[in-house]
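Researcher: Sequence recovery benchmark, item below. Answer with residues only.
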């Protein structure tokens, strides 16, 4: 495993894709797990979602690794996936909250008022 840890990201990606070497993916996972978890935490501003969203990001990385272009920085590619995944999560979460409020409002359980300009 120590030899793997010295390998560049592009080589690890190639080993995983061409040789189905899961140790190579594992090294990438552990290499970037904390960075992605911290990024997700900064975006969500909520520690509750960090672990689940980080796992979701790495599932997407795993499924889409064949689309990675080795001419670009691997960390930037993962950051892009993490950012999009997290923003999508926030949008869904906010949509659910807005729909819940609208439903409660329609049922007369929430009072609304207008604010004069």
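Model:
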């Amino acid at each position: 495993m120590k030899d793997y840890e010295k390998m560049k990201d592009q080589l690890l990606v190639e080993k995983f894709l061409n040789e189905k070497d899961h140790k190579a993916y594992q090294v990438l996972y552990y290499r970037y797990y904390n960075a992605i978890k911290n990024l997700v935490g900064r975006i969500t501003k909520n520690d509750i979602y960090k672990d689940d969203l980080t796992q979701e990001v790495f599932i997407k990385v795993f499924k889409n690794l064949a689309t990675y272009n080795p001419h670009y920085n691997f960390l930037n590619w993962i950051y892009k996936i993490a950012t999009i995944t997290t923003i999508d999560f926030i949008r869904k979460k906010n949509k659910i909250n807005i729909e819940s409020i609208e439903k409660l409002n329609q049922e007369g359980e929430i009072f609304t008022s207008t604010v004069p300009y």
